[in-house]
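User: Structure please.
Assistant: Input sequence and predicted structure:
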Amino acid sequence: VRKRGNGTAVYPKVAFNVKFDKKIPLLGMPKNKRWCFLANFRDRTEIRNAVSFRMGQMADGLEWTPESQFADVVLNGKHEGLYQITEKINTGKNRVNIDEFGADSADFNIGYLLELDSYYDESWKFRTALNGWPVNIKSPDEELCDSSFLDYISTFYNEFESCLENGAFKSASERYYDMNSFIDYGLVQSLTNNGEFFNIYSVFCYRKKDGKFYAGPLWDFDYRTFNDAGGPLFTDGIWYRYLVHDADFVSSVKSRWESYRSKLDPYIFNYIDSISSVISRSAHVDETIYPFSKYMPEFQNGDETLSFEDAVIKMKTVLGDRIAYMDEIIGEW
């Protein structure tokens, strides 16, 4: 058991990772050694991450989005509060399933997992040549990396970014990225209005053996989400600032939004009602352990003074208005 998080690591409700000595199924989720216990300390509703993950699981273009379950956690005899126990982003058959670079790999033409994140805190990392975006190598493990492997990854990634910069969109989609995953990833980021996405935190992509980058998995939606029905769409974020100038990409976004949007209502609102009902009692107990009135000046979710129930109602209202806003904006493209 070890503490996890960057910005969240200093809060009194501690998020942590658990690694078992062998792979086990946990609360009905597929077996693995590694699990995250998310505190959701900055989230009055406690369900921002869960709802965002569910929206990702509804998107056909995203190959894997973490599953999660809620539980009251007792650690060393102490009730720590309500936690979201979730699959950790790592590679493997039940997680990000890629043909991963390993000690017996004959060459570099194989899968790897990247995280664009401004904390920029992995051992192997680089900044992109054109924009200086921070790219962390999450997999393979650091002991399998060396300067040659770093050069290989950074060169291929920079070729992708250069392709976008130069407007070579057909080459980009044929050679460097999977359009469907990038569209669906962007749609979920837009629906949640995720501020972390625009400031480049927890933005994942991975390369498969077929040689293309796939967007995802989704991660980190507990903060600065579901709080504004207007504002920017994903078109202002990293790769998308280029892709919106590709007529084929925009046409595909419009088509996929129409299909995906038809799944959302009423399903996602019923899901919010269901999951908030399940955790309601625990959420109220959690508030007595970690009172929002003591910590709320630091937060910006906009629901710090609300009750749990009213915060959930606000979340649903904002999401409904956001869907209508995206209908209008995407319809005008």
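The chain has a mean pLDDT of 93.
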